[in-house]
Design goal:
single chain; 769 residues; mainly beta; Immunoglobulin-like; Maltoporin, Chain A; 2 domains; 22-stranded antiparallel β-barrel; five-stranded mixed beta sheet; 44 strands; CarboxyPept-like_regulatory; CarboxypepD_reg-like domain-containing protein; Plug_dom_sf; signal; siderophore uptake transmembrane transporter activity
Length: 769
Amino acid sequence: MLRILLCLLVFATPGLAQSFTSTIRGTIKDADTGMPLPGATVLLSPTQTGAITDSQGAFRFENINVGRYQLNVSYLGYTTALISELLLESGKENVQQIRLLPSGKQLNETTVTATRPVSYNSIQEITIEQTFRYAATYMDPARVATSFPGVAAANDQANGLVIRGNSPNSMQWRLEGVEIVNPNHLSNAGTFSDRPTSTGGGVNILSTQLLGTSQFLSGAFPAQYGNVNGGILDMHLRTGNDEKTEFTAQASLLGLDFAAEGPFSKKSKASYLINYRYSFTGLLGAMGVKFGGEDIRFQDLSFNLNFPTVKGGKLTVFGMGGVSSNTFEPEKDTTTWEFAKDGQSILYKNRMFASGLTFEQPLGNKLSFRAALVGSTLYSSRVAYAVNSRNFEKNELLDDQQLINGKVSLNTTLTYRYNPRFRFQGGLFVTLNHYKTDVWSANTDLKSLVIQPFVKWSFQIAPRISAEVGLHAMLSQVERTDKLSALPEPRAAVKWQFNETDQLNASFGLYSQMQTAGLYATHIYDTDYYNNRNLSPTRSQQIVLGYQKSLPKNSSLKIEAYYQHLFDVLIGQGLRDNYSGVNLVEEVPYEFLKNSGTARNYGVEASFQKLLTNDYYMLVSASLYDATYVDLFGERHEARFNGRHTFSFTGGKEFKSGSENLWGVNVKVLWLGGFRDKPIDVKYSETLKTTLYEAQSHYSVKMKDYFRPDLRIYWKKSKAKFSRTLAIDLQNVSGTKNEAYRYFDKRKDAVVTQYQLGLIPVLSYRWEF
């Protein structure tokens, strides 16, 4: 019997030690022209396996054991690219599209993913792999950005971002380089007034299954960016697998996801990528299960179709769309009614759609052309009734509003590289905006046109010094006004690589941003005659100084100091309320506004990042900042989002168990200075039974510091034809009560503090095959 057992163990050992394999492949192209680079050398670590790209710039590593890898790509006359944190899983190929930069002199390795770096300062790349790995991101790139220095979430329930003390309204969303409307479900999530915001929401409509590498910029933007003062999140779509059909299914407390990708035919490199998602809360809502008395539902569909054209060109057709709703109905047991909202019936609906196409075409070895056309629209409605506690009937209409915000944007860009030391880029953005409201039967229908030409020259001054100068212009006009704003915006940046590991950067620029559409549409005294249509864009001057040091073991240190001077800021002309545009989010002040205010933000940021190598990673970020504004009377006050400091730690460790199991433990800790609020006039609020602030008050009330630890644990298991991932995310694992805002509750007849989310567990199961 003992001999038989030993024989079974011998034969069983190969099965237990079975290795699962897959493929890493991709293409290497010129970053400016998009032309393939044949003969490039690709080194796969840690296996130290090498490959040479073919005539189409393609490389391939087949039958590679699943696990973590790095690619080191080199080509004569180009910078070396180091692509880290690659995860190869069974059942899925890892396909990379890498673009190399020409270089007059090779100094050190540049960590890139797929695209040319677009800024010298204040830029972070967000990969899909990070979005899946970081704790409590809900697979949303905006929530990944809270790990970066100087970035804070405006509210736990939404993904609106406070960047360097600026209002979330100063952020801009882009898709494939083109400005779009707010791309989120439930754009009212976490707001004081329960009304939509222009940049935030509960869940990103674009599924992570379609995302490639997104770019997050926080200031001193290059010349190709306009109509923004605070920050940019530019989402890019990945290309579907053009050789093999693959599927992904995922179930979580967020929703059920189904994705498919693959080639249209074996004879073509054209490919498709499509994803559909339905909310898990929607399924529970259909069964009568509610969260905090709310029935929350959403679903979305997104796709990306890729068609190669002649001579290395590419045409893509893409789209995304989602519908969501939030229904609140009072409890039948009226004795449980505690707050004013408990006696209301509220229905909020949200629909967002965006679709477009891009066309890229190399025009020889030095010239390339790119065009993108995107249309996007956001519709939201809110209806609220007071419910009679005796007969449970809706007896008083409290709110009835519909909002439509649409954009159609065209972008054309021409890139010309005279030689490795000189590059020119020029282009034009044209955006038509349409804003329509129906609030209490008061209708507004406004259109505006924004035209933004730009030119930019990049050149190498010396072997170790490069610079970039550019000019952006924004011409804008709101319908039914005679005012045309024509604003020139010079930009400049310089980089000094003074040795192999250290570099200094400096950037400067002048910027402008249109007001949120609701401010232009404001009616004063319920008439169309008194309005704010003649408002000008808010402008800013920004300076950034940065230092970056490359360290051993795939780590780096970054330090940046910045200064922002905002002018032509909106301020209210009312004698009671003290409005400044830098403090507004979802609220619309019904009074005259003028571009006569100023504001100032300055600070210093530092971050240390170690990429995922040797089974662990970390990102430690911190900032100290000050954000102030000047009011109608010329007095300077602390701004609403002047938390004064941010700190975040994001890190994790992976553990291998045999060849088929991979465990990961990930932690994120956020410690932010508390935002500010106005003091509430309690007596006046008691009289009128609504929230009213003290006359001419400013944001003198500081809320408590914000502290939130998050945890993510995942288990990846590989099989021959598929891989599975089981994960649990615990947001605010300590259950800390963080203050959100204060308001006067007429049922309580007192000031109430509203807190942010407590412990939120999200369990997910992902299957890739």
